[in-house]
Amino acid sequence: xxxxxxxxxxxxxxxxxxxxxxxxxxxxxxxxxxxxxxxxxxxxxxxxxxxxxxxxxxxxxxxxxxxxxxxxxxxxxxxxxxxxxxxxxxxxxxxxxxxxxxxxxxxxxxxxxxxxxxxxxxxxxxxxxxxxxxxxxxxxxxxxxxxxxxxxxxxxxxxxxxxxxxxxxxxxxxxxxxxxxxxxxxxxxxxxxxxxxxxxxxxxxxxxxxxxxxxxxxxxxxxxxxxxxxxxxxxxxxxxxxxxxxxxxxxxxxxxxxxxxxxxx
Length: 265
Description:
The protein is globular, with a radius of gyration of 17 Å. A seven-stranded mixed β-sheet has the order 1-3-2-4-5-6-7, with helices on both faces. The protein has ten helices and seven strands. It has one domain (about 5-260): Rossmann fold (3-Layer(aba) Sandwich), CATH 3.40.50. Strand 2, helix 1 (about 30-35) and strand 3 form a beta-alpha-beta unit. It is an alpha/beta fold. Helix content is about 40%, strand content about 15%.
């Protein structure tokens, strides 16, 4: 792994907690969490390859993204960490948990699933998959820019009564995503399927779902929680897909309680 991973870090005491963003964000999308957790933890958020200041991978795959996370751990001399992943970041976190369980203290999966566009019966929902990809790549194929696409996508992701500042922040973050990185991420996302493997994750796991999430509804995350041997699910009332941005105080409180229950002082 030769890719240099850009990151933000807050705090230099306590156990490391590493945040992995979703398709529409970057390290800065975890700013509220970096600030909140820096007092007790060494809080780190990466720029995924192809995003922010991190160069793209030659080919973005989940194994190559797992290697990128490992490279970040090595660079920061992290033996084991609490790993938090949102959406696509949650998929990367699951793949990492299966490939490198010895490097995890815990896993937190936010607004994510164990497979792209599958029903609870395990069969692909092709119409949903095709609609998702068309909604996100179709406008770019027809000449739209990321800045033009961002407001529509963000508005479709949030839940009840979102803070206008959250909308503004999320739109700005998505507008700043390099188009090539975004396309790579969508193509990679479409290959994700750990539905038959996710039960092999046995580190302590917290799942956080948004009650009004149109992409990963709570029933999907509940199904995943039931497949895990050491997991619990929290559903955030009124929140959409951008849980950590829409309801940061509640999100941070739930995550903090979970981590404190694991950390040995």
